[in-house]
């Protein structure tokens, strides 16, 4: 009888995939060094630990823990849920997040996916039995600390306003240094151009198109956008005036500011800095803006991208205006109008219909017995068009009368 001994197969131990998350709150030289030191620490720790393999270091530099816009953190969680990470290392609870609810929700998502989160300072591993109990307790303290710091910071900012000292800001055309705004000449020339061309009858859209075609770019290096340059036209900063506390954050968790409509005092600081725009030019722009809005939209100009229908088509279901949109079909584009609610990408709760512009204009000129479409005539004649979900439109005329515009019965063009 022959007996053969079969050797046991070699079992290669599975390496644990370990990633780290590093965040520092402000983008200063000192904190940038802290950021680099943390990255170096985790690189060395993962490399020196037997059984661990490097799964990446995810960082957010100059981001607060309360903000929802943390690209590094978002990528970390996505990769962990995708099964690419076994352990996440981070310095402390406050580096991970300071909102208890969001923190625990994230940790529980990680736990369900089999991913451990280890907080070095607090010596917590979320996959241990007592990890979540300790985490809940300590996260509450971290959130309280964050709210206390935020309250102190807010008090410090607001206490400046009554004394005419603004908080730091960097509107296009200026740099902020030691409490003052100083003109950046290259940017200021573009601001002046936007104002001058607007008074010359050009829309911000047309001006921006020329700026971008000339290779000029915004401060971030991106193309200029008309939605941004429009705000310049109404910004009193350009005549040397600051309005402090026009916006505020009701709570630390609010990612963006809320318009101050009387909840807090506002402070107007005149002659605070050197103006870019002369006050007479600024006042003339405000008067022109008011005139254009009163005559059918904020950009009713010879070169504008809008016409007399702007702000005139009114949804009878939700009360919002119809917006002008562009659609491509078979290599060609055309304009149509649709309720603003439906354009948000959350369905069409109003059951509103898309109205092709060429057909709508033909219908209006036919009912008004006009030889052709003319913005000025339409503005003087029609004050509002009510649009319902059944293609039945009603035009309200300036003389107080109304006329039906039966879009469906007139042979509508499908969008």
UniProtKB/TrEMBL annotation:
CDD domains: Ser_Recombinase (cd00338). Signal peptide: none annotated. It holds the Pfam family Zn_ribbon_recom. It comes from the Bacteria. One of its GO terms (molecular function) is DNA strand exchange activity. Residues 17-164 form the Resolvase/invertase-type recombinase catalytic domain. Residues 171-295 form the Recombinase domain. InterPro entries: DNA_bind_recomb_sf, DNA_bind_recombinase_dom, Resolv_N, Resolvase-like_N_sf, SSR_resolvase, Zn_ribbon_recom_dom. This is Site-specific recombinase. It comes from Actinomyces urogenitalis DORA_12.
């Amino acid at each position: 009888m022959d007996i053969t001994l079969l050797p046991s197969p070699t079992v290669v131990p599975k390496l644990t995939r370990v990633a780290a998350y590093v965040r520092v709150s402000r983008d200063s030289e000192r904190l940038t060094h802290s950021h680099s030191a943390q990255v170096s620490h985790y690189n060395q720790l993962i490399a020196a630990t037997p059984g661990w393999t490097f799964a990446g270091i995810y960082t957010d530099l100059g981001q607060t823990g309360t903000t929802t816009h943390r690209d590094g953190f978002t990528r970390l969680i996505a990769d962990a849920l995708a099964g690419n990470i076994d352990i996440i290392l981070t310095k402390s609870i406050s580096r991970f997040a300071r909102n208890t609810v969001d923190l625990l929700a994230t940790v529980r998502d990680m736990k369900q996916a089999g991913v451990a989160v280890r907080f070095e300072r607090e010596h917590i591993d979320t996959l241990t039995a007592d990890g979540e109990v300790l985490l809940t307790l300590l996260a509450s303290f971290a959130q309280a600390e964050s709210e206390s710091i935020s309250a102190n910071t807010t008090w410090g900012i607001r206490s400046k306003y009554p004394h005419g000292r603004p908080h730091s800001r960097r509107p296009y055309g200026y740099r902020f240094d030691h409490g003052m705004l100083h003109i950046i000449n290259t940017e200021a020339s573009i601001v002046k151009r936007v104002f001058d061309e607007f008074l010359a009858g050009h829309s911000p859209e047309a001006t921006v198109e020329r700026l971008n075609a000339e290779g000029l770019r915004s401060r971030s290096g991106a193309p200029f956008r008309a939605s941004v340059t429009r705000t310049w036209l109404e910004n009193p900063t350009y005549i040397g005036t600051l309005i402090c506390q026009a916006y505020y954050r009701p709570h630390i968790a609010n990612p963006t500011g809320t318009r101050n409509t009387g909840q807090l005092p506002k402070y107007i600081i005149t002659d605070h800095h050197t103006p870019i725009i002369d006050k007479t030019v600024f006042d003339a722009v405000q008067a022109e803006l008011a005139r254009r809005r009163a005559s059918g939209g904020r950009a009713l100009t010879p070169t504008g991208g809008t016409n007399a229908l702007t702000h005139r088509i009114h949804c009878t279901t939700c009360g919002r205006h119809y917006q002008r949109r562009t659609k491509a079909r078979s290599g060609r584009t055309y304009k149509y109008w649709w309720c603003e609610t439906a354009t948000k990408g959350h369905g069409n709760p109003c059951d509103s219909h898309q109205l092709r512009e060429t057909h709508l204009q033909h219908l209006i000129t036919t009912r008004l017995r006009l030889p052709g479409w003319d913005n000025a005539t339409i503005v003087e004649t029609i004050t509002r068009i009510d649009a319902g979900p059944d293609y039945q439109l009603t035009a309200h005329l300036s003389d107080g009368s109304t006329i039906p515009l039966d879009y469906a019965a007139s042979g509508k063009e499908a969008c």
